[in-house]
Queue: 2 jobs
Job 1
Amino acid sequence: MGNNSWEARADEYSLYGFTDLPSVHERGAVVVTHGEGPYVFDTKGRKYLDSNSGLWNMVAGFDHPGLIKAAQDQYARFPGYHAFFGRMSDQTVLLSEKLVEVSPFDRGRVFYTNSGSEANDTMVKILWFLHQAEGKPQKRKILTRQNAYHGVTAVSASMTGKPYNSVFGLPLPGFLHLSCPHYWRNGKPGETEEQFTARMAAELEATIIKEGADTIAGFFAEPVMGAGGVIPPSKGYFQAVAPILKKYGIPFIADEVICGFGRTGNTWGSQTYDFMPDAIISSKNITAGFFPMGAVILGPDLADRVQAASEAIEEFPHGFTASGHPVGCAIALKAIDVVMNEGLADNVVRLAPRLEAGLAEIAKNPNIGELRGVGYMWALEAVADRATKTPFASTLSVSERIANTCTDLGLICRPLGQSVVLCPPFILTEGQMDEMFEKLDKALKKVFAEVA
Ligand SMILES: *Cc1c(COP(=O)(O)O)cnc(C)c1O
């Protein structure tokens, strides 16, 4: 790494988030300059197939002409405004209408943020505000699940069920984590998947009774856990938990930041898993990654109650400077159109079985314990021993090695625990999919030969 190289300069002045520092010090950061379709290029001219769509979000690839034009046109027309004091841009009005139209709700209201974390944070504040306005100031606890990923702000990190947040002294008090509904990993010997789901539901009800329903503000869940390791719910999970939440008057919020807009093969993950939430959190795909944006989409009941609570004090005292930014809204309008009407969502539906079949072939490797996922989001979990599901020693950094070996072969994929995540852009062609399979298979064989 020459002193004046891009890697050295990145290393000297940037604080990397979620990065394995030993490996980046040894290998140098990949400094990326531009992209073409699902590929990105680095400062050395190397080309990588990004099988993670950036961070799940660049679903239309890295150079979509329609999205670039939507951004350029809106910058030329009106490059920025806020949504405070009774003013908002025309693009914001249009996007709220569109989001309610494509949501599973008949009616609703939308609030904008700059990220998924802020959208979850905003939703928690909405619930606290609402319950307090309705005479239940003690109804403040938030229920999520272990392995859930809801973001990194102090509140959304408290909702995230990952052990790394303990280094910040998080979670904050009042954030409770239920068990992760991952049958393969957490099922007991002899327990059927149905019995496992029933146990998850019983745990939820026991927690509500123990804590008191009147102390619980809401339950948040990703339809498929994303950053926790691509974990689809156990069979019947949402059908089992939804009636319990309803029975105790606990709002059910679907964090659709990854699943929303086509990732699971339907517009919403809640459609794929057949449940009706009270509100939806959206971000990532909402702008196909071309602008930072998040949205809280309230269904009719919560929308009416928040509106009434706001009327009572004459305002909803919350908002970000860039909430409902006109350029972001114009891009989101275009991104939703591109995904839903220009064949991207159809691609996912058409090619998901091919993606699954190709990965299933790779997963025959005896060091792959589980292939899991749906639509265009999958993970392969590495194991030292398949029969006992024993992981590799963490000192071997197996998933880091797999991801680094893939990078050397020109494939970007993400290590997550002992798993490797594949969540390609929706524009991926069959030929590009085969390139991904071939490079991944090669990397896995190489790494397992070294460590097994
Ligand atoms: C990425 C993610 C978030 C956080 O979004 P940021 O834009 O990174 O703040 C929240 N929830 C889920 C499910 C996510 O995948």
Note: The radius of gyration is 22 Å.
Job 2
Amino acid sequence: MIDLRSDTVTRPTTAMKEAMMAAPVGDDVWGDDPTVNAFQATLAELAGAEAALLFPSGTQSNLVGLMAHCERGDEYIVGQSAHTYRYEGGGAAVLGSIQPQPIENAADGTLPLEKISAAIKADDFHFARSKLLTLENTIAGKVLSADYIIAATNLARERGLATHLDGARLFNAAVATNTSLKQLCEPFDSVSLCFSKGLGAPIGSALVGSQALIDKARRLRKMVGGGMRQAGIIAAACQHALDHHVADLSHDHRRAARLAEGLAKLPGVEITSQATNMVFARFPDAHIQPLSAWLKEHGVLIEMLYATRFVVHRDINDADIDKVIAVMKAYFSQH
Ligand SMILES: *Cc1c(COP(=O)(O)O)cnc(C)c1O
């Protein structure tokens, strides 16, 4: 199957599995795992942060990030279509007693500054306490501009809010714009990074921030069940991805652009966006069911649940892109 549902479907390479098998390990809840400690130190340095903390998932890394900033009854300002609001089971509210204040994302993924400003509440006992602004980069594959990030985080800071970035695909943004991870993390108080997406690790995310924030996060991580023991096996995979897979993301971006270009030529297909490793398309409603079945029958999996999305990743090669275009072309020439 050519699986374009998500970049989470990537599998560890043989070299990555060898690195995992060879990793020296210890009990990380006791702080004893040398591979985890080395990975966290390397990542913190790379992100220009004081400290980093390994997590089993990006959902947990985001949750703990939000809980490290917000107490019960505080609120975070977040995009309506952001992962931290929409796709994390309402965890911030359920587990953190943190009220989300969602605002509509603009088409480019940004939260308009005037909407952020209007959403920040006065210090009044009627209101939840506005504590945090949360952004996402990339969002639906789109890279937030550096100017926007500076303006939004400055606005938050001026109004006394902390800032968190869901950087599940921040490495895609770094590669696409030829910007260092450090530069992309610098405007934020905390950043969550994923290694199990396009970077190809089987498990693993991390939170970066100040030492004080990470100390608090370590306690919260234990509380939500994320304290792991011989986690060096996971850290070794993440470190291997950092060392060997980051630059490869540019191939995913090139292939996604080629896929979008090929699909755009087909009658009945409207490409609504292509950015970094993602292509979003729209078809007449009547095609959704039969097209989905056709694709599956011809060995192609795409996600059509929330939007029609094709995600390119390191387990997809040029021939796969050609095949997807050919299968789509065959469908639209017969229907
Ligand atoms: C995948 C993802 C996460 C974290 O997801 P997990 O599956 O919990 O690792 C967070 N934010 C975004 C934008 C994501 O795509």
Note: The radius of gyration is 20 Å.
